[in-house]
Design goal:
By secondary structure, this protein is mostly helical. Helices cover 82% and strands 0% of the residues. Helix 3 packs antiparallel against helix 4. The protein starts with a helix and ends with a helix.
């Protein structure tokens, strides 16, 4: 339980309120403006995820490198932050009135994780195996939401620093309120 709680500390940096901004903007932007916004939002989300992942791994190393079991578990659970990118694809589905698709994937992820965790525990693979099962289920859900959201997003687009900064300006109050 400590390992999953540990990663939640860093996931708020990864989210940073961006998903609400994405829902709003994707709801009304069209064509090239949507493509540019999407590219900027996705790059920002990936960058924040990378920062939160590096921070989580660094903190784990500083405080737990002497305890191999705990350190290994925290490293694996920190990788679950990669699956947090899924939320931006959920925001696209929500903006296009397809929240039920995202919900269906979430339910499927729960059953997949439960099944994988059961197999891991039956195989006596321990806590790290359970964390790896969670990571596998999260990455499969990420892949599925990515595929579904492509239907609603135009190809191309380019990220721009002014737009990334604007997204941060809009999202930081949402991030602060969620703390």
């Amino acid at each position: 339980i400590f390992a999953f709680t540990y990663v939640e500390i860093f996931s708020s940096l990864s989210h940073f309120g961006i998903n609400s901004v994405v829902v709003r903007e994707v709801s009304f932007l069209k064509g090239p403006a949507l493509a540019d916004f999407w590219k900027s939002a996705l790059i920002l989300r990936q960058g924040l995820m990378a920062i939160s992942l590096i921070t989580a791994l660094s903190v784990a190393f500083v405080f737990y490198h002497h305890n191999t079991v705990t350190f290994t578990a925290l490293c694996w659970v920190s990788l679950c932050l990669v699956g947090e990118i899924r939320a931006i694809y959920s925001a696209v589905l929500n903006a296009n009135m397809k929240a039920v698709w995202s919900a269906g994937i979430s339910v499927g992820k729960i059953f997949l994780y439960a099944g994988l965790a059961y197999l891991v525990l039956q195989g006596h693979l321990g806590v790290v195996g359970v964390i790896q099962a969670s990571l596998a289920a999260s990455l499969i859900a990420l892949f599925l939401e990515h595929l579904l959201s492509k239907k609603f997003l135009p190809e191309g687009g380019k990220a721009a620093w002014p737009q990334i900064l604007q997204i941060l300006k809009w999202s930081w109050p949402l991030a602060a309120s969620s703390l």
